[in-house]
Amino acid sequence: MKPFELDGKVSVVTGSSRGIGRSIAEHLAAAGAKVVISSRKADACEQVAQAIRAAGGQAAAIPANIGEKGQLDNLVSETRRLWGHIDILVCNAASNPYYGPMAGLPDEAFNKILQNNVIANHWLCNLVLPEMAQRKDGVIIIVSSIGGLKGSAALGAYAISKAADMQLARNLAVEWGKHNIRANCIAPGLIKTDFARALWENPKLLAHYETTTPLGRIGDPDDIGGIAVFLASRAGAFVTGQTIVADGGITIAG
What CA–CA distance (Å, rounded) separates 108 from 112? Predict the structure, then answer.
């Protein structure tokens, strides 16, 4: 038995043209899974898919805007047309158009955050869960954030959405566990991605993270990819409804 092997599995990873999503896609492919690369821009998706294929993996590019239900439906239907079914769904794509106190949060920004970070995940999960239930096998992975574990003076709306993602995974785990479907979250700390650039490019904030994090550094996307392989594979077969924190230890350091 190879506990981390994913040979023959079909996976869809949203927001996978860069950062954490790309790392997850690359790690899943390296473990043997067929991977659908998806984000808004078709050319960016195709570049990642080509890189995975060049490394010996199997990958296809199917662009989709997570805020558009019809595009998510197309993402799922095109994946089925290509590879027949979906075994692993990774909801990684997210938005954060606002940085500041909740008192100044425009309704439009709050709605977009909830739409893209929570409702879109709900939509996408419901598109794949019935077929997973028919096969009595399936994995849902939602990329949350340690922001969902604590209060924030500047990222409050984003933190609310990420806390909701943790609860979404718990709900799905309870509702679909009888069909051998597992749902979990990964909650990264500060990772060196374009999405978090405003944080790690701030010298004062970076120094704070480096001095208060037990491991003495911020994260890299490849610190996250392997966790998805664990959750998607036989190695994680008895793990469901959980949030795995990968933050270098900052949440336990006070």
Answer: 6
CATH superfamily for 10-246 is NAD(P)-binding Rossmann-like Domain (3.40.50.720)
Are the CB atoms for 106 and 98 separated by under 8 Å?
yes
68-89 pLDDT per residue, tens: 999 999 999 999 999 999 999 9
Helix axis angle, 120-135 to 156-176, nearest 10°: 20
- Length of the chain as a residue count: 254
Q: What share of the chain is helix, strand, coil (3-state, %, to 5)?
A: 50, 15, 35
Question: How do the domains of the chain map onto residue ranges?
Answer: 10-246
Q: Return the H-helix or E-strand segment holding 162.
A: helix 156-176
Instruction: Provide the annotated active-site residues.
Output: 158
Structural contact between residues 39 and 49, judged by C-beta atoms closer than 8 angstroms: no
| Cα distance between residue 158 and residue 135, in whole Å | 35
Query: Which DSSP state fits 191?
Result: B
Q: 3-state DSSP call for residue 98?
A: coil
List Cα–Cα distances, 191 to 95, 164, 244, 247, in angstroms: 15, 21, 15, 8
pLDDT at 193: 85
